[in-house]
Amino acid sequence: MTHPAFAPNSPADIDRLIAAHPFALMISSAAGAPIATPLPLLLERDEDGAITLLGHIARISPHTELLRREPRALVVFLGSHGYISPSWLADRTQAPTWNYETVHFEVDVEFDDRAEATQTALTQLVDHMERGRPNAWSVADMGSRYEMLAQAVVAFRARVISTKAKFKLGQNERPDDRADILKGLELTAHQSLLEAMTRSNP
Q1: Using CA atoms, how far apart are residues 102 and 41, in angstroms rounded to an integer?
Q2: CA-atom Rg of the chain in angstroms
Q3: I need a labelling partner for 182 at 20 to 30 A (CA). Which of 112, 122, 129, 195 fits?
């Protein structure tokens, strides 16, 4: 359920969330039973705004077998989130809540069994996660071990069919309550949610 007040300000908000929080949950249904796999995914957006998610998954996973037969899935990303305590507010009649950022994508998954596709998926993910680290690691550092380990996974691209995003970050709070919440987040060192709320409500 979404409310217009909690819509992202722009597509860049979605791109930023996924870049910062790339670990998603891919969910399918097999004969009425749910199956879910946590996976790191990278977002690719073309010049027309169409989104594709790049990832890899274990070849022997039952989810891989299912997706080859039934490629439609739901991918859920969770960004910054946290409990909002009424103890922070001057008005203690307010109820507690949870602020959060989330993006749900309905996707069609297409596997690419070529070795070069796997290398692209792994290299791009590692480069994304290692960016800015001192003494950054690269796939090339694995040497001969790479070939052995890479054979165990298969690359895929998930084409996004529909997007539902909710950035519930205090947009509906009264100014005095919002100021108290921001102060509470600062005092409890919840920097990620503090930054998200500040970004959403400049």
Answers
A1: 15
A2: 20
A3: 129
Q: What angle do CA 8, 180, 168 make, to 5 degrees?
A: 20
Q: In whole angstroms, what is the distance from residue 143 CA to residue 25 CA?
A: 30
Tokens 């305590």, residue located = 85
pLDDT one-digit tens code per residue, 145-200: 999 999 999 999 999 999 999 999 999 999 999 999 999 999 999 999 999 999 98
Which residue shows structure tokens 């979404």? 2
Q: What are phi and psi of 194, to 5 degrees?
A: -60, -45
pLDDT in tens, 87-125: 999 999 999 999 999 999 999 999 999 999 999 999 999
Give me the DSSP letters along the chain: ---GGGS-SSHHHHHHHHHH--EEEEEEEETTEEEEEEEE-EEEE-TT--EEEEEEEETT-HHHHHHHH--EEEEEEEEEEEEE-GGGSS-TTSPPEEEEEEEEEEEEEEEE--HHHHHHHHHHHHHHHHTT-TT---GGGGTTHHHHHHTTEEEEEEEEEEEEEEEESSTTS-HHHHHHHHHHHHHTT-HHHHHHHHHH--
